[in-house]
Hints:
This protein is α+β, with helices and mostly antiparallel strands. It contains 11 helices and 13 strands.
Amino acid sequence: MKKHLFLFTILIFSKALVNEVRASLQYPVVVSTWPFLEAVRAAWNAVDGGFSAVDAVVEGCSACEKLRCDGTVGPGGSPDENGETTLDAMVMDGVTMEVGAVAAMRYVPEGIKAAKLVLEYTKHTMLVGDQASAFAISMGFPGPTNLSSVESIEKWTKWKDNSCQPNFRKNVIPRDSCGPFHPNGPSIRRCLMDNELRPNEFGSVNVGLHSHDTISMAVIDQIGRIAVGTSTNGATFKIPGRVGDGPIAGSSAYADGEVGACGATGDGDIMMRFLPCYQAVENMRLGMEPKLAAKDAIARIARKYPNFIGALFAVNRNGTHAVAAFGLRDLNWTSLAANILD
Length: 342
């Protein structure tokens, strides 16, 4: 297993005066992918103020959306092939196992809060596209709103000027222009293991410090309830309609109040094929410590996709946490941090 080469921030905040139960179980806990300190602080302030784990996760991810963390969360970033920004988000209650998610959502800038609406006011798990937008607006959210920004349009324009390269197309013609694209011969001619043996060139080049796509956050609240949430504006220059791992329970995040939680980041198109966060939580259910649970979940992907780029954290119900990662050898590593505030 390669060294951890993804940036994670894990903050465990506790008051100086806590009872023995809270001290021994290390509650509350806020864990997040990437060094989005303001998002983690927002979640901490919420959970320390008595918010539930679900509400604290929403507060944290919402802060990241408003800050447009690294241009990959919230409105104004990651344009698709048409130059439009769309949002994916998910929240999961580890007590009830309920999930609310939105995917490829247009016109509404608050992805995580829209996902919470699905959780609270529907019997569904996920709403997608324009109908997700219509639902959020019907429930009182402002809109429709243009989710593009000056920066995202400039990025898209430069990409168009570069003949729309790199992109997520494969086995199509023309290869070096902006389309329209057509299949390049029958797919039956492709080698069965072609995907596994050929490097994922787009992901290897473009998953990095400013294109890693997702905040994934887990919270254990003051009484031990666990929740997770994610928010992202997806892969830059994605094919319109693409949904990554962000809103998929078990892939980008998963929580079970009896066991613990997991959050992930990286090449979502690969990760969602393996449900690594579900695997990590199930590993902990079987008795693995978080470090081994996370490492095993990542290793299962890396064995099939040696050019895969991704990472995840695992935290058990007692607050013990660990991280495993694979890839990004050229990215400077910032070590895992645990900060305690009195």
